[in-house]
Amino acid sequence: MTDVRKDWWRAATIYQVYIRSFADGNGDGEGDIAGLRQALPYLSDLGVDAIWINPWYPSPLNDGGYDVADYRNIDPRFGDLTQAKALLDEAHGMGLKIILDIVPNHSSSEHEWFQAALAAQPGSPERERYIFRDGLGPDGSQPPNNWLSVFGGSAWERITEPDGSPGQWYFHIFDVTQPDFDWDNPEVRAEFLDVLRFWFDLGVDGFRIDVAHGMVKDMTAPDLPYDESGLLDSPTIADHPFFDREGVHDIYRGWRELADSYDPPRLFVAEAWVEPPERLARYVRDDELHSAFNFDYLKAPWTAQGQRQAIERSTSVLRNVGAPATWVLENHDVERIVSRYGRTETDAAAGHLRKTDERVDEELGRRRARAAALLMLSLPGGAYIYQGQELGLPEVTVPDEAIQDPVWERSGYTKRGRDGCRVPLPWRVDGPSYGFGPDGSWLPQPEGWGQMSVQAQSGDPQSMLELYRAALRIRREHPALATETMTWLDGLGDDVLAFVREPRFECVVNFGAEPVALPEHQDVLLASAPLTSDGRLPGDTTVWLAT
Q1: How far apart are CA 79 and CA 57, in angstroms?
Q2: What is the pLDDT of residues 313-339, one digit of tens each?
Q3: Which of 330, 364, 399, 479 could disulfide-link to 386, CB 3.0 to 4.6 Å?
């Protein structure tokens, strides 16, 4: 049965399902609830505690489901509410929690509220649910300010009024099909509390909040002096007009009150791209959200100094507010770690957001990804695994004609976007879609994809999948990994990170090129690569020790 401990999330391992690319149960080329239900035993055996499902709501999929047309239903491509309830019951029966995405910053332009706003007049209640403004200039033909969309181009789009005349402009931080709600409107706030209640009552265990640092805006703010709206960039100016504003915290206090009214309480996880970590800590105070993604860690380079700095900053700041850290290497918005770590520059900026012609050394990247997995899974707090990460999948170069991410078009075909980490999973060695489904897949899978499939790796003690299975088994069973403390062990070299977790657990990571001697220990619990013949730790390798 599902874990009833109220603080289960503090050390949980959560598996992220990008449902469109996970498993296709009905043969239409897209993943769905039926496919996910069939794969629940795989996730249970993997050893995770919860599943986070990316948006499955009705949507035109102009932005991968983050353009929601109906917050209380399931897109027919993925299933229906009856199937969703069956999934919840089956997952809970296996001890797995289910977390959904909530997208409160904006809706799809096909949402009934926005369609009503287009049909209404300026100043009407329908338009006040969104951010409509008159344009500048004598004929209103210029946008209200110079703010830019994070997907490229202006953050303003002009509409045609019901009488056919050029009309007002609406604000959209993201795609033009994703109009932003006006969170100063009490009707918007009440609506989302009701949406949360709907899913909580169905049995959902929590929500990951998309763009949790957005929502509240200061629409009276002046033009920005430069482009402050890059995708996955944290705001770098104080008092930003539409990111990380004080008003979001009032919203989350109300959400937390609702979550705490359930038994057991429901969970919130923030996607908040804010810096420094002290700003992020404000989202996880004890009367707001429970945890937040640790993007400082995700973006850190694969160096001893970079990793230690990210770990120390996160744990120290969050400890001050009583919240656990979370650790994440991949998600549906960033480059696969095998490809990122297979280059000279290994920070996250080298991924989707910057063009680079450097060739990827996948063998090196996979070796580092194995070491990074053991480092992440040995840290105190929660950990997130993005689907396919446990298979060591690399980033895929999707052919130009097959790219579907709106970033590609809106950037003038200069930024390829995020499709490369969203290619459907390989489950079997062969077949029309390598076991993803009975037919093809909505994004093309590369040749030989099946060699990295679940089938190919299962039972192979040297595979990435079996490394994850072993690590997650130890993570669940070892008493030291249930605690929230760690102590650095210094003196092993500039390229080495090592720490102790009591009782009797040590993690040692060698980021350098040369093997290093290990500290005294009783036994090797697990290593990301074999030790040398004389028992030293090779470069780009992590080992777990019993002391």
Answers
A1: 10
A2: 988 888 889 999 999 999 998 999 999
A3: 330
Query: According to the model, what pLDDT value does residue 275 have?
Result: 81
What would the DSSP string read from start to end of 269-297? EE----SSHHHHHGGGSTTS-SEE--HHH
Mean pLDDT of 355-360: 76
Separation between Cα atoms, residue 349 and residue 295, nearest integer Å: 12
Cα dist from 417 to 382, 388, 402, 420, whole Å: 28, 18, 12, 8
Which of 332, 91, 319 lies closest to 232 in space, CA to CA? Answer: 332
CA distances to 273, 293, 302, 329, 395 from 297, rounded to whole Å, are: 12, 9, 10, 8, 20
CB-based contacts of 25: which residues, under 8 Å, 6+ apart?
32, 33, 34, 35, 36, 37, 38, 437
Across 363-400, b (16+ Cβ under 10 Å) vs e yields eebbbbbbbbbbbbbbbbbbbbbbbbbbbbbbbbebee
3-state secondary structure 420-460: HHCCCCCCCCCCCCCCCCCCCCCCCCCCCHHHHCHHHHCCC
Please state whether the peptide bond connecting residue 503 to the residue before it is cis, i.e. omega within 30 degrees of 0: yes
Contact 147, 241 (CB under 8 A): yes
Answer yes or no: are the C-beta atoms of 426 and 391 closer than 8 Å: yes
Q: What angle do CA 372, 378, 384 make, to 5 degrees?
A: 70
| pLDDT tens-digit series, residues 479-494 | 999 999 999 999 999 9
- Cβ(423)–Cβ(21) below 8 Å: yes
Report domain extents, the chain.
13-106+186-467, 112-171, 485-546
Handedness of CA 330, 336, 342, 348 (dihedral sign): negative
Whether the per-residue pLDDT at 184 is higher than 60: the answer is yes
Average the pLDDT over each of 47-56, 98-107, 225-234 and give the range with the smallest value.
225-234
Average pLDDT, whole number, for the chain? Answer: 93
Q: Characterise 239 by phi-psi region: left (phi > 0), alpha (psi -120 to 50), beta (else).
A: left
Omega before residue 264 within 30° of 0, cis:
yes
CATH number of 485-546, picked from 3.30.1180, 1.10.150, 1.10.287, 2.60.40: 2.60.40
Please give the sequence-ordered ranges of beta strands (E in DSSP) within 188-266, or none if there are none: 206-209
Above 50 in pLDDT, residue 4? Answer: yes
The CATH class of 13-106+186-467 is alpha beta
What residues contact residue 354 under an 8 Å CB cut-off, 6+ apart? Answer: none
Name all contacts of 457-463 with Cβ < 8 Å and 24+ positions apart.
Answer: 457/391
Q: Tell me the CATH number for domain 112-171.
A: 3.90.400.10
Residue 167 and residue 228 in contact, taking contact as beta carbons nearer than 8 Å: no
Rounded CA separation 237/224 (Å)? 10
Confidence of residue 414 (pLDDT cuts 50, 70, 90): confident
Return the active site residues.
210, 271
